[in-house]
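Chapter summary example: a protein plus zinc ion.
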Amino acid sequence: MRLIDAHAHLDAHAMKGLTENYADWLSGILARAKEKQVKAIVANGTNPESNRQVQTLAQEHDLIKPALGFYPTEVEKISEEFLDEELEYIKKQKDKIVAIGEVGLDKKYSEGLLTSGKWKELYAKQQAGFEKIISLSEKTKKPLLLHTRKAEQDVVDMLESSSLKNPMMHCFTGKKKLVKTIADHGWNFSVPVTVLKLHQFQELVKEVPLNQLLTETDTPFLGPESGPTNEPANISLSVMKMAELKGITKEEMSDQIFLNYMRLFN
Ligand SMILES: [Zn+2]
């Protein structure tokens, strides 16, 4: 079997509040991933510091493939010049990275600010930043790994007015109708390990054609019920579940996801 984790955060150990020493945690999850035949872990950056860490990790470990990005709620906090500078840096790194991520739009945190009127301004900033990121993907031909929380329709609208062929929706929880729209466009979904228990992701797997599906963990977040944290080795569980949903063997499922990964990320 050849398994793929198309979306993880390997520099975010501290954010999850894990008490284990970082080096031990990393070597542990990489060893267990190899044992389970995970062949690639796409590590996403969320800001300049995180992007540099992702690149260092990728240089040190063959299994780790770098994606550089700017997380939407981070884009809210910075100046336009600062964003431009980092996007210019990512552009220069294009031959050394597999994708641009994590990027997109997020309304979860902004919504609380609605009453103050500040919200509109922050969200507009996210959208202006995302516009530039879409154009970076058009220029570099690197796929976008998309965060769409509570802003699914807006992300789709912006992608529809771009020339992008291969964006990937990470942990997509938008409406069923929108899943169909995205699938009809030929765009991709990476399915989290929570497909084991969440009906919504099980329905998504049934709806989306096999050649548009990938697997992800969002390590160290979004773990399966059984564990306090998440790690790439858990892909073996979701592939089994996805195979069952599609009525094929887990070998057929993992082979197809591996091919999708090769097409999208290389
Ligand atoms: Zn993520």
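Key point: The mean pLDDT is 93.
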